[in-house]
Amino acid sequence: MIKQTLPDQTHIAYQDGELWIEDVRLSDLARQHGTPLFVYSKATMLSALAAYQRGFSGRKAQICYAMKANSSLAVLQVFAQAGCGFDIVSGGELERVLAAGGDAKKIIFSGVGKTRAEMRRALEVGIHCFNVESEAELEVLNEVALSLGQRARLSIRVNPNVDPKTHPYISTGLKGNKFGIAHERTLATYQRATSLPGLHVVGIDCHIGSQITQQGPYLDAMDRVLDLVQAIEAAGITIEHIDFGGGLGIDYNNPDEAGLPPPADVLWAQLLARLDARGYGQRQLMIEPGRSLVGNAGVCLTEVLYLKPGEQKNFCIIDAAMNDLPRPAMYQAFHQIVPLHPREGALSCWDVVGPVCESGDWIGRDRALNVHSGDLLAVLSTGAYCMSMSSNYNTRGRAAEVLVNGSQAHLIRQRDTVADQMRGEILLSAA
Ligand code: LLP
Description:
By secondary structure, this protein is of the alpha/beta class. 28% of the residues lie in helices and 24% in strands. Helix 2 runs parallel beside helix 9 (264-277) and helix 8 (216-234) runs parallel beside helix 9 (264-277).
């Protein structure tokens, strides 16, 4: 049986026998807005950001929030107001940044499959740069920029062939992955880029994976990237900025995970020492953190619908499901699940599952809980890659979201209605 505990360093804590987020009772929010409900702590987001800012103090560094982790407009607004840029991977994400008041000049555009229309729009609004992921993309970007009479600013994403030691689906910097340009092809690709009139080389980029809990892979990737910078500059091409991507893990309080990720400022002290030692400490740096800025700032509130004790398994059926919380089904990911009002008495062992018609629809297995139907639970560490990956599978409406700031709670997204879900669909004509 897995014990249910709270992660450290968040603004989510028990007080007077119930769970609070900052100065707000979570049960009040569940009552007011219904469940499933995502609730985020602004203070937790800003303190996660502050760890990076401390790490970079005195350096030229731009933090570009990888918004795929959580792209809700009000979340983007918090980071835009705190001075962040954004790492985007689609035209849709670009429009979200602009709608949230983000600065186009602080946007970097990553991804292996940018369309011409997406490139055009990004050039029109004047983003900082494109992270180009293939030689074919380089040619297309050149054409699109020339058609607008512009030169597109770009970095080349290199694949350093380093094992980030994380789940294979979220490992991106190995030779067999679809991402980036192979180490051996990098110099030739830079030379091609500088020969094209619609392109302006500004940087180099790498991103090796996500939920990384060790420093070693980062240091290895950094060495490989710096070797390339040296070779590229020796060939007469200037690299203004170095982008080390995102990927720092968070503490999910997972009993099976041995090592905890280092705090962002501790990691960056190590990385900056390596940069200094190799003479690149004063270069403009960019990073693209996603999960580590929002993951532990969010909880998903859910109600226990039914208890279904059985011979082999006890099932606790909740009103949140894999469409709201896809990470367990997709990556066998672990999230703590805690009661909003803990009960006295014996704990028993439950598989916490959703109403979706698939056995893959589980949220937590073998959890020690004392629950009754009607109880409220919080699924923890759900600020990243939950709402942004949610779907309407089983024609379930996507959850509502609330952002808490001190004692104030702001509804930042309404729950989907069935009409929202059917919008845009067209019946066949009667004849
Ligand atoms: N930069 C690039 C180019 C990326 O592809 C990603 C994430 C990031 C930055 C941000 O990485 P982070 O700091 O969040 O680790 N859905 C998966 C995670 C997918 C990550 C995709 N790329 C999950 O729920 O674990």
